[in-house]
Amino acid sequence: QVRLVESGGGLVQPGGSLRLSCEAFGGIFSISALAWYRQAPGKERELVATISSGGYTDYSYSVKGRFTISRDDNKNMVYLQMNSLKPEDTAVYYCKLGVDWGRGTQVTVSS
Questions:
Q1: CA pair distance 34, 71, nearest whole angstrom
Q2: Of the residues 4, 38, 78, 99, which has the fewest C-beta atoms closer than 10 A?
Q3: Measured between alpha carbons, how far is residue 71 from residues 4, 53, 62, 94, 110 in Å?
Q4: What are the φ and ψ backbone dihedral angles of 45, each rounded to 5 degrees?
Q5: Who's near 60: CB < 8 A, 6+ residues apart?
């Protein structure tokens, strides 16, 4: 079983940046696709970004051009660089590997 631990969330002003990290313990990281999801209060969990084992990336329309997903297979880490943050980006952000989820990290965008 894989354990995923997210970090890097916090409070940021609109227009600011945050970098989320997710470390994986267990599993076969280097051949796995990875994803970041988010869930805002009262809303369904939504896919934000994905990265394949070969490094191909894809993004939801709402974050394309502002967020960047990346991975470091040597460290079993996946990252989400978030720029030009908006209040509507406020949510708990989760990383996902296969069928396993982390516990999430809160991102709040507010002045």
A1: 9
A2: 99
A3: 14, 9, 21, 15, 28
A4: -70, 135
A5: 46, 47, 48, 49
